[in-house]
Amino acid sequence: MKYDVKAFELLSNEEIADGIFDMRVKNDELAPLAKCGQFAHVYVPSKTLRRPISVCDSENGVLRLVYQVKGEGTKIMSEMKKGEAVDILAPLGNGFNIEKSKRYCLIGGGIGVPPMLYTAKQTENPLVITGFRNKDLIILQDDFKNAGAELVLTTDDGSAGVHGFVTDVLKEKINEVDEVCACGPTPMLKAIAQVCKEFNKPCQISLEERMACGIGACLVCAVKVRKNGEEIMQHVCKNGPVFNAEEVVF
């Protein structure tokens, strides 16, 4: 895994939904190295720990990082201005393993939707299922359409798209795809893994955990996985964030 710390030029940082921002930063050396499912570790002034943000897209030396304001760190990020230098450690983690010959179902829930966009761009005719709590949090729908995806939108409250959960749609359409990739809250990932097991479909999931170092040096993001019949601890930042669903002990 090749990564480094570099200054990225901030090209734009715009709010695209309620509390959700779309940041684009440029570095011709590191941005092209990013693979779908990896993340960037962003230094925030006055904060000790970096903020891990999934790679939403990478094109022409520009990293696209879509994030949600959840605390002081991301609030400071949202106030960064065009032209500033942003200190970023990237690209980090192991991403999705995509085979061109397969048709994928890509599922994102909430802020787990952004990394599925770059993943969609690596596949042919993907089925993309996005899930949000309500219509005010919907993002990136036009981007997925432009990427050639068959897109299904769901909301928990029925304020837009299908009223229900991403798993409801997955059960209806799972026989149309060869493999499933997903990112989002742990309960959603657990439910998706169960559906895929029921239908005997391979499934890759990107776990969301708190990360401190981003490179496996600390123990903050340790999760339990099953390898060769034994349960062991691995790091989401280094061994993941993408794991085979059947290996994760929920």
TrEMBL record:
Binds 1 FAD per subunit. Keywords: 2Fe-2S, Electron transport, FAD, Flavoprotein, Iron, Iron-sulfur, Metal-binding, Pyrimidine biosynthesis, Transport. Its cofactor is FAD; [2Fe-2S] cluster. Residues 3-98 form the FAD-binding FR-type domain. It comes from the Bacteria. The keyword Transcription does not apply. [2Fe-2S] cluster binds at residues 213, 218, 221, 237. Pathway: Pyrimidine metabolism; UMP biosynthesis via de novo pathway; orotate from (S)-dihydroorotate (NAD(+) route): step 1/1. FAD binds at residues 51-54, 66-68, 73-74. Heterotetramer of 2 PyrK and 2 PyrD type B subunits. Belongs to the PyrK family. HAMAP family: DHODB_Fe_S_bind. Responsible for channeling the electrons from the oxidation of dihydroorotate from the FMN redox center in the PyrD type B subunit to the ultimate electron acceptor NAD(+). This is Dihydroorotate dehydrogenase B (NAD(+)), electron transfer subunit. It comes from Ruminococcus intestinalis. The gene is pyrK.
